[in-house]
Amino acid sequence: MDVFAALGGGFGVALQPGNLLLAFIGCIVGTAIGVLPGIGPLNAIALLLPFCLALRLPPESALILLAAVYYGSGYGGRITAILLNMPGEPSAVLTTLDGHPLAKQGRGGAALAISGIGSFVGATLSVVAMTFLSVPLAKVAVAFSPADYVALIAFALSLLGAVSDGPAVKAWAAGCVGLLLAMVGVDSGTGVERFTLGSLELLGGIDFTVLAIGLFAIGEILLLIETKLRAEAAKLGGGEKLSLREVIHCVPTMLRATGIGFVIGVLPGAGASVASALSYTAEKRLNEAHGKFGQGDMRGVAAPETADNAAQIGNLVPMLSLGIPGSGTTAVLLGALLMYNITPGPLLFEQRPDVAWGLIASMYIGNAMLLLLNLPLVGIFARLLTVPAWVLYPGVLALSFAGVYAASNSAFDLLLAIGFGVLGWLFRKMEIPLVPIVLGFVLGRMLEDNLRRAMSLSDGDVWALLGSPVSIVLWVMTLAAVAWPMLRGLRRVAQPSRGV
Amino acid sequence: MQRRTLIAATSALPFAASAQGFVPQNAECIAPAAPGGGFDVTCRLTTRMLSELNLVPSPIRTQNMPGGIGAVAINHINAQRPADPNVLVAFSTGSWLNMAQRRFGRFAENDVRWIGAIGADYGVIAVRRDSRFQNLGDLIAAFRENISAIPIGSSGAVGSQDWTKVALLARAAGQDPRRMRYVPFEGGGAAMAALLGGHIQVFPGDASEIRGQFDAGEIRILAVLSAQRLPGFLSVVPTAREQGLDVEWPIIRGFYGPPRMPDAAYNYWVDVLKRLHAHPAWPEARAAQGLFEFNMVGEEFSQLAKRRTEEYRTLAREVGLIQPTQ
Asked: Residue A496 falls within a domain, yes or no?
């Protein structure tokens, strides 16, 4: 069938007033979910699903609503990351690196605006790619083997040294702390308990929310208390608004980030956090000579935010075209189809074109809605900073704690978060970057699982890790990424000695 | 709203027959694997039907808790909410295997309250559509030639139910199951992706999770591991027994609760399942998910769970998964 005719049919479904309204509601809920720490799109969708069934929404309408919550959440996570240096979700961790310095310069509004535009560009271009390339892309994606994933994750980890500005060795150390934290809990392969110190609460491992809220939110607040709330908080106003020139300056970044994000997103085993980490470090490397990454570069905000949203859309590709979930959230969306007695699988586009194409069409509309919703709201979000710090930070802390407790029902997790807060405060004082900890944590478990699979597939033959052209290229890039900061370090050592 | 008030009011009465004072609040169904597999379907199908048929006053939330093929979930409820009346955990025959093999740490069949079953599914042996294996005989011949040369993958570690399915086939072919090249994935969805991608050659999955790919002709089913042919879309697929191998693998699906779930709550959930089984709308919804009738609940079911777990413990000793001294 002609793609345009099918897409036209999809718009026929998506433009029905009821479905438009549902997409709009989904976008608002999604943005809110993204802002609130601790509550991710997965929980929100799982909570909304019974309502869809109770309201007897037809399957295409339910999916339009739930998917809008999903991609809408990609617009929300940046807000607290930029304004308060507190990422609401894994993929927003990278946004703090340049977003928060911009907010400190009084340009929080501009950073929010560019991230909104980036999110829109990334998502919309990805929907276009999905419209035309869905099936072939998904076929390529399943060909990505466990060994290839190992190489990809190793590459993402190797870039840790480049994430922060300080000495690479500190970033590496921080990354290793993250890897170590990822090991805590029952080992998924064997059921063996690791680093649980006999504690039952640690059996399930450490939750990302607990770690992120501890390191970033509580750590930040401890630092502010120490300096009697005077130091380095973000300020409202004083900075210029986002100029058209700056947006145009970011366009190449957004296009590259869309490419990286979408491709990574289509792979069923990778995710938005890998995508945003890769695209941020790629931009930083490309623009090293004429950028101020880490101190407030607009491109440093645009890159991870664009990649994040592109990856989210990419994640829907294997789900819709093969019936294979690429992440927890897309799996819940698949579950929604099952509950409507629709069998997700390669025949979805033929059997239920109204559902598949209706969803795709609604994503064009939804992302436009999100941009229109978010740009005018930038001013309102930024006004968050007019709230006095002694009200704002305890308020955020209370919300964070509520989020942690809602996710786990466990007071132990709150204590754990405070523990990580103290750790985060100490690390800040020692100028050890926090972002590599979180990335190491997120990537560590993925690395372990895939390494294990690759090893059993090859019967323990380590060379199988270099078994495909993709993995060889990735490993070469990994080696280069590890060597680069070392060479730079050597040069740095060499230069002063020449001066003397 | 009116109905909810009414239920709350009736159940508050001391002589209310079924609920005996228990009304679920923010009830939760834990699916102890990543979304997309059998546990997930168990939770979502049941909670949807309970809400749709008004058998519970408020919707039950499904939470995915992957890790250790259920170890994380059983540890979670034992550690954090051992008396929570509002939590159900999905289990399958595989959970009994894991308990038998002490894969859940110190927790086993006596550390939960067995509420009941919702139905049974059956194991299938799936290969990609272009596989060199046309039928079970081809696979068995290849097993006899060199069993270690065939990558087999599914959700669950060595010793799990998906592993046991092929282990039984291997044993029936006179091969040592320990020599199989088996790769665990977290959830059936990931294993299916690996089958389609050609990373594994055999996927011993469940009948309920392969329909989308089967209908599309992406995979071939070599055998169903049931006593008789299954009704519905799989009726064209022969059983293992028809192909000369006496291997069966029913997967009973249902729920357990925390070890100290109060009697009032336990009785409430048993009763809810009974009423679900009796409802005229249930068989169709259950069948749509590839589940066959299996209506045992309460005390009778609890005994079955404990008996089966003990049987699997014996099996595990035979295959050498646990030491006889354990």
From this structure: no
CB A167 within 8 A of CB A489: yes
What global pTM score does this model have? Answer: 0.78
d(CA A266, CA A28): 25
Which 8-state DSSP code applies to residue A92? G
What is d(CA B154, CA B138) in angstroms, rounded to the nearest whole number? Answer: 20
CATH number, domain B2-121+251-319: 3.40.190.150
Do the domain assignments include residue A380? yes
Alpha carbons B173 and B178: distance in angstroms, whole number:
13
Contact B35 A347 (CB under 8 A): no
pLDDT tens readout for residues B123-139: 999 999 999 999 999 99
> Under a CB-based contact definition with an 8 Å cutoff, are residues A63 and A336 in contact?
yes
Cβ–Cβ under 8 Å, residues B249 and B122: yes
Please enumerate in sequence order all residues whose Cβ is within 8 A of that of B94, keeping only pairs 6 or more positions apart, or say none.
B69, B70, B156, B160, B161, B162, B251
Cβ neighbourhood burial of B149 (10 Å; 0-12, 13-18, 19+):
exposed
Q: Is B79 on the interface with A (CB under 8 A)?
A: yes
- Domain containing residue A174: 3-491
- Considering only residues 27 to 66 of chain B, which have any Cβ-Cβ distance to chain A shorter than 8 Å? 34-36, 40-41, 44-45, 47-48, 51-52, 59-66
| pLDDT of residue A307 exceeding 70 | yes
∠ Cα A274 A29 B48 (to 5°): 95
**Across the strands, what pairs with A455?**
none
Report the DSSP pairing between strands B219-224 and B124-128.
antiparallel
At the topology level, CATH places domain B124-248 in D-Maltodextrin-Binding Protein; domain 2 (3.40.190)
The domain total for chain A is: 1
Residue B9, pLDDT score = 40
Q: Residue A500 falls within a domain, yes or no?
A: no
Q: Residue A324 and residue B189: Cβ atoms within 8 Å?
A: yes
Long-range contacts of the stretch B297-301 (C-beta < 8 A, 24+): B297/B115, B297/B116, B297/B117, B297/B270, B297/B273, B298/B115, B298/B116, B298/B270, B298/B274, B301/B114, B301/B115, B301/B116, B301/B117, B301/B254
Q: Which ipTM did the prediction report? A: 0.79
Q: Which residue has the higher pLDDT, A8 or A77?
A: A8
Average pLDDT, chain A: 85
B2-121+251-319 and B124-248: identical CATH topology: yes
Mean per-residue pLDDT, A479-484: 83
Compare all CA atoms of chain B with the CA of A201 and give the residue at the minimum distance. B79
> Parallel, antiparallel, or unpaired for β B28-31 and B87-92?
parallel
* Region for residue B212 given its phi and psi (left: phi exceeds 0; alpha: psi -120 to 50; beta: otherwise): alpha
Q: Which of B56, B76, B33 is nearest to B268 (CA)?
A: B56
Residue A498 domain-assigned (yes or no): no
Q: Which residues from B are below 8 Å from A54, CB to CB?
A: 51-52, 59
The residue of chain A with its CA nearest to that of B103 is: A191
Task: Name which of B44, B183, B215 is nearest A345 (Cβ-Cβ).
Answer: B215
Chains A and B form CB pairs within 8 A to the count of: 166
Query: Does residue A72 have a pLDDT over 70?
Result: yes
B40/A204 touch (CB, cutoff 8 Å), yes or no: no
In chain B, domain spans: 2-121+251-319, 124-248
> In sequence order, which residues have a C-beta less than 8 Å from that of residue A247 and are 6 or more positions away?
A114, A117
**Rg, Å, chain A Cα set:** 22
What chain A residue is nearest to B40 in terms of C-alpha separation? A335
CA distance A26 to A51: 13
Amino acid identity, position A415: L
Region for B31 from its dihedrals, namely left if φ exceeds 0, alpha if ψ lies in -120 to 50, beta otherwise: beta
B53 to chain A, minimum CA–CA distance in Å? 10
